[in-house]
Amino acid sequence: MNTSSSRPVVLCLSGHDPSGGAGLQADIEALMAQGCHAAPTVTALTVQNSVDVSDFRVLDSAWVLAQAEAVITDLPIAGVKLGMLGSVEMVDTVASILQRLPNVPVVCDPVLRAGGGGALGKDEVGYAMRERLLPLATVVTPNLPEARILAELPNGTADECAAKLLPFCQHLLITGGHGDEQEVHNRLYSRDGSSHTFTCDRLPGSYHGSGCTLASTLAGRLALGEATVEAVENALAYTWRTLRDADRSGKGQHFPRRLPLDFCD
């Protein structure tokens, strides 16, 4: 029996989605596909499916701290992925956890809306994330609607949102796909003034858990030691493939296929 492990451990602080399309299950599957080990710490419970979210409950901070403490004191954390937090108090709780992990790459997915449009936190949660978590993150991965909330620019372009948010973070990846364009433009902005645009073909349909998939994959690629631009490019390519191969298990959005059918063969 091999008693050592070369798989990087990624601490995931996010919500539980009972449909399995998004949240921690998406994190686990995406990280497995990168050759990483996911350590999921539950921040919130949701009532949702492929159609929309109807309710959520943020866990008590002491429970979240206890979960994270158990993992941090036992496993070598090589990366962190942040997802749904749901309250200002949970933002503060997660910030205190990150203080325990200096020099570990952090990917922050500012989850404020479900794929179906339902709220997963009030706008003030986004503002708290901007002030307290973005400065601790390596890469922040909002879609354009989330970037507009974080930047307080309701009709802002990606460039305008980036100008407002870059003082808070090292790298900002604003994902596209929310308009009618035939090509999706995903833009990576860096505080040093550099920027990169990654384009891909627009796929038909809508998807549940695409943002979780991208952020957790990116956290895994950074944990594996990839440079930021390379990690972003690889994470975007993998996420696009999961959407291309997605299936519609329920009555609403498609679920990304994060693991191949023969994954366990």
From TrEMBL:
Pathway: Cofactor biosynthesis; thiamine diphosphate biosynthesis. Keywords: Kinase, Transferase. CDD domains: HMPP_kinase. Its EC number is 2.7.1.49. One of its GO terms (molecular function) is hydroxymethylpyrimidine kinase activity. It is an enzyme of class 2 (transferase). InterPro entries: HMP/HMP-P_kinase_dom (IPR004399), PM/HMP-P_kinase-1 (IPR013749), Ribokinase-like (IPR029056). The keyword Transferase applies. Residues 17-253 form the Pyridoxamine kinase/Phosphomethylpyrimidine kinase domain. This is hydroxymethylpyrimidine kinase.
